Amino acid sequence: MSRRTKIAGVLLILLVQLACHSGSKKSSDGKAQSASELPVMKFDSLSADFGEVKEGEKVVLFYTFENVGGDNLVIYEALPSCGCTTPKYDDSPVKPGEKRTVEVVFDSEGWSGLQQKSITFKTNGLPDYTTITLTGTVN
Questions:
Q1: Angle CA(88)–CA(133)–CA(125) in degrees, nearest 5?
Q2: Phi, psi for 10 (deg, rounded to 5)
Q3: Per residue in 113-132, pLDDT tens?
Q4: What are the φ/ψ torsions at residue 4 (nearest 5 degrees)?
């Protein structure tokens, strides 16, 4: 089998999986929901630049998001790209139209140069995953 055929096969599988996951999901009571009824986590900004800090400093950033969907948003987990980045948030359901703030602490101990870190939130919303990033330089 040629490399081109293998790549085409993998792409076809990915497209089928995407098609199967789009459209509707089930709510917490088991009923199917259309895309317009699902919760949506919308951040004011998906990225922040903390500028320059001295190695060893802790940087604290705040990211505000709103549930712009039609059902309660539940954050199942927040996955940082490394142990140096810690998200703090209220994990109770976020009602439609409600805003919340996520506090992110980056510990620059042991890091130097340009840094880019991320936190990916797994939710019951559309899309399932939302990623925020922070960048800056550690001197």
A1: 70
A2: -65, -45
A3: 999 999 999 999 999 999 99
A4: -65, -40
The superfamily CATH assigns to domain 39-138 is Immunoglobulins (2.60.40.10)
- How many CB atoms within 10 Å of residue 99? 12
The tokens for 3 are 């490399």
- What token pair was written down for 10? 């993998």
Domains of the chain by residue range: 39-138
Residue 138's H or E segment, with its range, is strand 129-138
124 Cβ neighbours under 8 A, 6+ residues apart: 25, 28, 38, 39, 73, 74, 76
45 vs 119: CA distance, rounded Å = 13
How much is the pTM? 0.76
Q: 26-46, pLDDT tens digit by residue?
A: 555 555 566 678 999 999 999
Show the tokens assigned to 2: 């040629």
pLDDT digits (tens, 9 = 90+) for 45-103: 999 999 999 999 999 999 999 999 999 999 999 999 999 999 999 999 999 999 999 99
